[in-house]
Amino acid sequence: MMDKVVLDSMSRDCTFKLRDTISQYIFPIVNSSRPIVVLCIGTDRSTGDSLGPLVGNKLKFLIRNKIHIYGSLECPVHAKNLCETIDEINYTYTNPYIIAVDACLGSFQNVGKIIVEEKPLSPGAAMNKNLPKVGDLSITGIVNISGAFEFMVLQNTRLYTVMMLADAISKGIYHSVLKTIGGRKLNSIYDESNLNNVEG
User: Fold this and answer.
1) Using a CB cutoff of 8 Å and minimum separation of 24, what contacts does 181-190 make?
2) d(CA 160, CA 124)
3) Pairing state of beta strands 113-117 and 137-145?
4) Is residue 158 part of a domain?
5) CA angle, corner 129, sides to 146 and 169, nearest 5?
6) 195 or 148: which carries more pLDDT confidence?
7) How far apart are alpha carbons 97 and 113 in whole angstroms?
């Protein structure tokens, strides 16, 4: 498998390429019966940093025995509770395979791109925060341009860009689960609009 895959969230085939990429990584994990945790990192208090919670929100109905979602608009996983959440995941699940989702900054030409790498991501790197690396597989969305005043850049990021990335990433994860595990197993109470948004 490739070390790094870069996809354009605006391309029409992004969902399918992302689905196939993620499926390659998680198929052997599913067969080994390791629990899979999708850890969506970020905060709803900053537009640019809301990618993770938005992805988690779109996937919160995806309740399965082997797939577990952490991080949403209601209960975000951010700098202040990340360490606690990682401890909870490792305490709750035996040898979990963690797919970490987060926003990042990059060059102008890469804004809107999705990067998939088989390595941990470094949350809060743009803000020089000293947080633990996390994830067996990382999925990052480039929401804006890196440079000076990263905090202001994240605060002034276009919601449209973040939503396009969140839609592509959530659909890619959702369809990779369908491809590797099979049919839906939904919570008895779920958001029909979320289901339509992911499937659409």
Assistant:
1) 181/30, 181/64, 181/66, 181/67, 185/63, 185/64, 185/65, 186/61, 186/62, 186/63, 187/61, 187/63, 190/60, 190/61
2) 22
3) antiparallel
4) yes
5) 60
6) 148
7) 24
Q: Residue 129 falls within a domain, yes or no?
A: yes
Residue 123 sits at φ, ψ, to 5 deg, of -60, 140
CATH number, domain of 82, equals 3.40.50.1450
39, 77 contact by CB (below 8 A): yes
Collapse the DSSP code of 15 into the 3-class scheme (helix H, G, I; strand E, B; otherwise coil) and give the result.
helix
For residue 181, give Cα distances in angstroms to 29, 40, 50, 139, 167: 11, 21, 28, 20, 21
First to last CA, the chain: 28
Instruction: Kindly report, residue by residue over 95-130, the tens digit of the pLDDT.
Output: 999 999 999 999 999 999 999 999 999 887 655 677
Query: For the whole model, what pTM was predicted?
Result: 0.87
Rounded Cα–Cα distance for residues 162 and 141 (Å): 8
Alpha helices in the chain (DSSP H): 14-31, 51-59, 82-92, 150-155, 159-180, 192-199
Q: How many independent structural domains does the chain possess? A: 1
The per-residue DSSP string of 24-35 comes to HHHHHHHHTT--
Distance CA 94, CA 90 (A): 7
Which residue is it, tokens 């208090």?
45
